[in-house]
Amino acid sequence: MLQSVPGTLAKNHASASHASTSWAKDAYVPVALELLAGSGTRITVKRGQEIFAEGASAETCYRLVDGSVRLVKLMADGRRQVCEFVKAGDLLGFETDEEHYFSAEAVRDCTLIRYPRRAVETLLADDKAFARHVRQITARGLQDAYQRMVLLCHKSAQERIAWFLLEMADGAENEGGSIFLPMTRTDIANYLGMAIETVSRVLGQFKQNGAIEQKSLNRIQVMDRDALEAVRGEV
Amino acid sequence: MLQSVPGTLAKNHASASHASTSWAKDAYVPVALELLAGSGTRITVKRGQEIFAEGASAETCYRLVDGSVRLVKLMADGRRQVCEFVKAGDLLGFETDEEHYFSAEAVRDCTLIRYPRRAVETLLADDKAFARHVRQITARGLQDAYQRMVLLCHKSAQERIAWFLLEMADGAENEGGSIFLPMTRTDIANYLGMAIETVSRVLGQFKQNGAIEQKSLNRIQVMDRDALEAVRGEV
DNA sequence: CGGAGAATTGACAAGCATCAATCGAGGTGG
DNA sequence: CCACCTCGATTGATGCTTGTCAATTCTCCG
Fold this sequence. Notes:
Helix content of chain A: 40-55%
Largest interface: A-B, 64 and 64 residues
Structural class of chain A: alpha+beta
Oligomer: homodimer
CATH topology of the largest domain in chain A: Jelly Rolls
CATH architecture of the largest domain in chain A: Sandwich
């Protein structure tokens, strides 16, 4: 039965790090946000605090200026799933409709600009390019979510951690293979769908075989990128 | 540290079945598709055939008129992740930008309408309501994806199957608790992130304790909905 | 310097994947 | 119309990865 040649498909066009880089390329959106500037309010949120709650009416949306945010879904028994980490420059809740379907929490102290949804809706209706951009970032969020489903279903703990480290290494805030991890091990565990102890153990293995070195609790130095990529595999 | 009251959040506002029901409610979109009718082409695809491939240039998008489609991501080793099942009435690839990030395959014989992307892009730019609707269905896809991440990371095999059955039971094509499952066990396994044998075993357990009865290979009768809901748990 | 939260490390158990064999159903050809 | 053949589903046995429980160590701040 149908079975396309895998090699031609799996080339990593979905490297999942475009969501941030697209900001640099797209010179337009800052202009659109400029239009919103009048209605935007600068706020600061302390580490661990909630920015908005799952199920709450989505009357505002945000742009993260500085810091790091996690998007979380809570279960009744208190367990939590981190759906996404939001980096500085990214938008929050622009794709939401009616009410938030996840809560947002500050991984560390954050600065955000808060926009009233009415103003954003108006801009979405009036500004085709901005509307198109919001469609794009939402689609890319979906793309990343699908990518991570593959990770969660078919990849081992080692592969997930290697993927995560390489993912973070491609982001900002790191020079020369030194990765800054703003979140806790618990966050990483909840993001990758595993126990915190497993995260610790796998990082220990990577330290053991010299793939990484730990400078501090949330600063990791990549010593052997090839080794990490070998562990991660394709996709 | 921060810990909102779980009960207030977890009320299942994300029942994940809105993607289809929204079509019935929103009387507008058929009108918009009417505008596209001139550029649409009716096509049929046989069971198992590919509609479009991951990584292919997204020059067309589709509306599924009849049948059932699975959205799939392939790995280099041949393993596959079913990201979503598409039901009759739903749109395919409208949120895509540039190139498809998953492939679409016919679960069974399908009828679709194919639209050139150029026409859709034009309509998106000209028709605010249609643009808004596309944003909504994309956001709902993201919502469902996040919901399923919780399922894949934190739920047991029994909980996943119970969730899946109840999900399918809320859909169309079934009367009086009789669920039609157009896809194979392999598809279900790849959708829920487990082995096909586990799917079989759990269904066997449910038959054993009288929660379901199997009318045929892809027709399941729910005998005790409460039991299934108890196994599924909240969310 | 001391305390609290986070991270690490170890021991153990369990759920689930994997391997393997059999069964069943649907479709085709004689 | 029936037998056969092939693909999918089921059922069983076994092992491993990873979650869970528990104790200790580390790190960050006050």
